[in-house]
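Form P-L/3: holo structure prediction, ligand zinc ion.
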Amino acid sequence: MQRVKRNDTVKVISGKDAGKQGRVVHVYPRENRVMVEGINRVTKHDRVRTTRRGGQEGGITKMEAPIHLSNVMPICESCGEPTRVGSRIVAGKRARYCRKCDAEF
Ligand SMILES: [Zn+2]
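OUTPUT (holo model):
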């Protein structure tokens, strides 16, 4: 079962971004990782290159790195709390629901 989907809002519960919230922009199901907007930014040191047009690229850039699913918790839209996600079959389809307020999402 996929606990977190794209466009979910999640709260980071461990690591250096613990306590922050962000929107999921990408899910990597095979790695159990998600990319979250503004979370887990890493500084990348690249050699400075000169492009054909004469501009420069490289140097120190910031980028987001995927974070492991176990380090985030989805935030329920109806109760606004970080929650665990349950799964049940509704009308023949698998639905995710909030374990705190029972709302489906
Ligand atoms: Zn809820």
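COMMENT: Strands lie at 9-12, 21-28, 33-36, 41-50, 56-64, 67-68, 72-74, 85-90, 93-98.
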